[in-house]
Design a protein that fits this description.
alpha+beta; Aminopeptidase; seven-stranded mixed sheet; 6 helices; 37% helix; N-acetyltransferase; GNAT_dom; acyltransferase activity, transferring groups other than amino-acyl groups
């Protein structure tokens, strides 16, 4: 039986960063700094799933999306005024969902994605994922997320993303 817990302290942020780096083969170590920074944002909410042995096998987190934030402004540039009012005005930004590959296809991503937004008081939630990440897009669509804009190239990224939204 796995255990779901809050992602709330530096030790857990470090475990999440280690898992992220293992999954994405990313060794720039900036993910831990990003999680720590994001944990100070209004409305931060993070969850982790632990294996029976107590190791972190997945995590998700997000926060209230505000105009003072870098990614909020990237998203705002892509949306027209009506889309901005609908999707970003009172929005929870679903930032990250990661599951260790050996634990995928067992419902853990669905569980984390559902639980993360369950108690959020914002009117909407928004996320981005790679256009070609079909498993993620399929999961999110099955949970009621809608495509808002595709393609989206955040910052200087050459990778195409899709902006997805959900009414809460």
């Amino acid at each position: 039986m796995v255990k779901i817990m809050g992602l709330t302290n530096d030790e857990q942020f470090q475990q999440a960063a280690t898992l992220y780096e293992e999954i994405w083969k990313d060794n720039d170590h900036s993910i831990e700094e990003r999680i720590q920074k994001h944990s100070s944002y209004s409305g931060f909410r993070g969850l982790a799933i632990l294996s029976n042995e107590g190791s972190m096998i997945g995590f998700s987190y997000g926060y209230t999306s505000l105009p003072t934030q870098f990614y909020h402004n990237l998203l705002a540039e892509e949306l027209n005024a009506l889309e901005y009012q609908r999707w970003l005005k009172d929005c929870f930004e679903f930032v990250e969902l990661a599951i260790h590959p050996s634990y995928r296809n067992r419902g853990f991503a669905r569980l984390l994605a559902t639980k993360l937004v369950e108690a959020v008081e914002n009117k909407t939630a928004i996320l981005t994922t790679q256009v070609d990440n079909h498993p993620a897009r399929t999961l999110y669509k099955s949970l009621g997320w809608k495509d808002i804009k595709e393609p989206f190239f955040p910052g200087n990224s050459k990778q195409a993303y899709v902006i997805m939204g959900k009414e809460l």
